[in-house]
Design a protein that fits this description.
By secondary structure, this protein is α/β, with parallel strands linked by helices. The chain has a single domain (4-238), classed as 3-Layer(aba) Sandwich (Rossmann fold). It is 43% helix and 19% strand. It is built from eight helices and eleven strands. The protein has helices spanning 13-24, 36-48, 63-70, 97-125, 146-165, 185-189, 194-200, 209-220, and strands spanning 4-7, 28-33, 53-57, 78-81, 128-133, 171-178, 181-182, 207-208, 230-233, 238-240, 243-244. A seven-stranded parallel sheet has the order 3-2-1-4-5-6-9, sandwiched between helices. Strands 7-8 form a two-stranded parallel sheet. It has a two-stranded antiparallel ribbon with strand order 10-11. α2 (36-48) links the parallel β2 (28-33) and β3. The chain is globular and about 50 Å long. The protein starts with a strand and ends with a strand. The protein binds NADPH dihydro-nicotinamide-adenine-dinucleotide phosphate and 2-hydroxyethylsulfonic acid (8X3).
């Protein structure tokens, strides 16, 4: 049986690129997200390239939906906890609490629900690998980003603690923490304002979803005795949340 990879948030960006890349690396893919049509297109693309892809449509914010969708999976060798978003970019006194709920419920609680459903399967199987997609925002709080940064700080803490929890089970935990990646992320953050989203990447060659997929493929292909705990990736023109060199 080929290795089984479960990737959340595979309808777009990093998750979609990871699904395509891991299928090319020989994994059978289970791709998830809320947009069924996007998942169907991804499945067709992976199958056309000779891979195997199953799709599951659910919202990671609902524990009931997560359990209903994922409990039937017999085996998961690799879980990529990628589904997530930023919503809004403003000072905390002006923040929209609906945006805050969306970020905490998706980035933190959604990741936990998925992880809680899958880990017993890995423990029973005697091993596995969890890759959590964190962010540079997980260690660098920045102005206007309090709640998104808090959610990614939580992912950073959860990743470190779960690595300790899962040591004896032989399950690897890797956190990948990108800087600027051009996906639908900024369009989602600015509630569909594409012009504002485009300005985020002006004068910069950002990372692409495929670059993060490259890193995921590398960490999951390492020998059994070797784990990457934490991997920070940025465009060459970025040195941190506050440092970006933009070409005129
Ligand atoms: P995209 O917006 O392109 O993709 C986000 C994915 O998450 C989509 O597939 C979306 O699927 C899924 N998703 C969002 N909310 C839910 C939900 N409630 N239930 C299920 N799936 C959901 O952004 P990215 O690819 O950039 O983001 C992927 C991850 O990378 C996120 O965790 C983000 O925080 C992180 N990240 C992104 C960076 C960037 O600069 N782009 C940098 C650092 C980290 P659907 O809408 O179909 O449900
Ligand atoms: C996404 C990167 O810098 O917008 O996590 O927070 S940033």
């Amino acid at each position: 049986m080929k290795k089984q990879a479960l990737i959340t948030g595979a309808t777009s960006g990093i998750g979609r690129a990871a699904a395509i890349r891991l299928a090319a690396e020989g994994y059978d893919i289970t791709a998830t997200g809320r947009r069924a049509e996007r998942l169907a297109t991804l499945r067709t693309e992976i199958e056309a390239a000779g891979g195997r892809c199953t799709t599951l449509v659910f919202d990671v914010r609902s524990e009931a939906e997560v359990r209903r969708a994922l409990e039937p999976l017999e085996r998961v060798d690799l879980l990529v906890n990628n589904a997530g978003l930023a919503a809004g970019l403003e000072h905390i006194d002006c923040g929209d609490t609906a945006d805050w709920d969306a970020m905490i419920d998706t980035n933190v609680k959604g990741l936990l629900y998925v992880t809680r459903t899958i880990l017993p399967k890995m423990v029973a199987a005697g091993g596995g690998h969890v890759v959590n997609i964190g962010s540079i925002a997980g260690t660098e709080p920045y102005e206007n980003g309090a709640v998104y940064c808090a959610s990614k700080h939580a992912v950073h803490a959860i990743s470190q603690a779960m690595r300790a929890d899962l040591l004896a089970a032989g399950i690897k935990v890797t956190e990948i923490r990108p800087g600027m990646v051009e996906t639908e992320f900024s369009e989602v953050r600015f509630h569909g304002d594409k012009a504002r989203a485009d300005r985020v990447y002006e004068g910069v060659e950002p990372l692409r979803g495929e670059d993060i997929a490259e890193a995921i493929a590398w960490v999951v292909g390492l020998p059994p005795h070797m784990n990457v705990n934490d991997l920070v990736l940025m465009p060459t023109q970025q040195a941190g949340a506050y440092y970006t060199h933009r070409k005129k």
